[in-house]
TrEMBL record:
One of its GO terms (molecular function) is isomerase activity. The keyword Nucleotide-binding does not apply. Belongs to the NAD(P)-dependent epimerase/dehydratase family. This is NAD-dependent epimerase/dehydratase domain-containing protein. The lineage of its organism: Eukaryota, Viridiplantae, Streptophyta, Embryophyta, Tracheophyta. Keywords: Isomerase, NAD. It comes from Gossypium tomentosum.
Length: 210
């Protein structure tokens, strides 16, 4: 498994897979974070998606599974997809069998309090959400071009160990926008990081069983 973007979900998923015997590598953008993750036993490469290095891209060829957890950048979009041809050639020459892009429920926009599922029409209202939707299609198109099926998971507000309303209170930090909405008794979408990982692994198992 190669994880582009070792953030909160990427780290949790990497540790779960490693405990199950997987070979896992990933990327981050700062030397400090890389050192911290390596101290925890994770194999992490320093990687700037705006200026991808051939060494890191070539490493990707050795992996059968790719999880993309890199957010778009305002004014740019998905930084990896800016190098589409390089990605395409890397994936064609590699061993990739499974690709998943982690998106956001923000692509649905303001739904007026309606219950939303994957069949609900995406209608993003802010620039970042619009970039998310474009990135989704970009990764789906790229996977189609190289002959593999891609998965898109639209995630709500993510919580888990060290990342909850209780932790915010303990740290005496300001409430996030989602926490403010809950105080105002508005419905929000929340998902635990462990449940995200279970869904990802289920997706992999379905692919392997075919």
């Amino acid at each position: 498994m190669f994880i582009l973007g070792m953030g909160f979900v990427g780290q949790f998923f990497a540790e779960e897979l490693r405990n199950e015997g997987w070979i896992v590598s990933g990327t981050c953008t700062s030397m400090k974070k890389r050192n911290e993750l390596q101290e925890r036993g994770l194999d992490v490469l320093l990687f700037d998606a705006n200026q991808p290095e051939m060494g890191t891209m070539n490493t990707l060829k050795s992996y059968t599974h790719l999880l993309v957890s890199v957010p778009p950048i305002m004014g740019i979009g998905d930084p990896m997809l800016q190098h589409g041809e390089l990605l395409r050639s890397t994936m064609i020459d590699g061993n990739l069998q499974w690709l998943c892009y982690l998106s956001s429920t923000s692509v649905y926009g303001d739904c007026g309090g309606a219950c939303v599922d994957e069949d609900f029409l995406a209608s993003p209202t802010n620039e970042m959400a619009k970039l998310r939707l474009v990135a989704e299609q970009g990764w789906l198109n790229l996977a189609h071009d190289v002959g593999i099926k891609a998965h898109v998971f639209r995630l709500g507000g993510i919580y888990g160990p060290g990342r909850s309303a209780v932790d915010t209170i303990i740290k005496q930090g300001p409430l996030s926008e989602s926490q403010k909405r809950r105080v105002a008794k508005q419905f929000t979408s929340r998902v635990h990081v462990a449940d995200i990982c279970q869904a990802l692994k289920a997706s992999i198992r379905i692919k392997l069983s075919r």
